[in-house]
C-alpha cells in the first residue's frame, strides 16, 4: 500500500488466501454474502453492497488449477 499525498483520499489493497483445504470444495454458499470482513458481509441479505471494491477469486482445489494472480 502507498499513502496518498495530503488530499484526504487514499486506497488500500489486501490479498488474502483463506480456507485452505485438501481436495475440491464447493465454495461460498451465498457468494459475497458469505464473505465477511470484520464480521460484516460484503453483500447484505438483499444483495446490497456493504463493502465496496471487493473482488473474490475462487479456486475449488483441483489439481489442474492455476494459482490466483499475485500468488504464483
TrEMBL record:
InterPro entries (alphabetical): Viral_Tip_Attach_Protein
Protein known as: Host specificity protein J
Source organism per UniProt: Escherichia coli
Taxon lineage: Bacteria, Pseudomonadati, Pseudomonadota, Gammaproteobacteria, Enterobacterales
Amino acid at each position: 500500500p502507498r499513502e496518498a499525498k495530503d488530499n484526504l483520499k487514499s486506497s488500500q489493497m489486501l490479498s488474502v488466501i483463506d480456507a485452505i483445504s485438501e481436495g475440491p470444495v464447493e465454495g461460498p454458499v451465498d457468494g459475497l454474502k458469505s464473505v465477511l470482513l470484520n464480521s460484516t458481509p460484503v453483500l447484505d441479505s438483499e444483495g446490497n453492497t456493504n463493502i465496496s471494491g471487493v473482488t473474490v477469486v475462487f479456486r475449488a482445489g483441483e489439481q489442474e488449477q492455476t494459482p490466483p494472480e499475485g500468488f504464483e
